[in-house]
């Protein structure tokens, strides 16, 4: 930890400093790693674990659950944020984030009559990642 991965204590401090208020954490972290688990207490219990093997997509039922849970959290309060991670941050994370953007209507493609599109979601993810 710390050489390949971000230091867990520093990540926890980041979320507690920027995304916590008197009501508790305004963040929810989605851990998609099957080989890297950590105590949710490090993040005030605001961790949702969906262990998925490296280089494998989530099962469809699991993906739907993740996306709905993400959307519920975001809709609960305007200050709520989500963080999604796997080992490299592009395969499983990209799939989940792009699916949520399509589900929520977050990523609108002006070229396609202001509707959500896979291309717009993937482009946004690639730029922001």
Automatic annotation (TrEMBL):
InterPro entries according to UniProt: Dual-spec_lipid-protein_phosph (IPR051281), Prot-tyrosine_phosphatase-like (IPR029021), Tensin_phosphatase (IPR029023), Tyr_Pase_AS (IPR016130)
Superkingdom of this protein's organism: Eukaryota
Keywords: Hydrolase
Domain Phosphatase tensin-type as annotated: residue spans: 1-129
GO terms under cellular component: cytosol
Keyword Hydrolase carried by entry: yes
SUPFAM superfamilies listed in its UniProt record: (Phosphotyrosine protein) phosphatases II
GO MF annotation list: phosphatidylinositol-3,4,5-trisphosphate 3-phosphatase activity
Name of this protein: Phosphatase tensin-type domain-containing protein
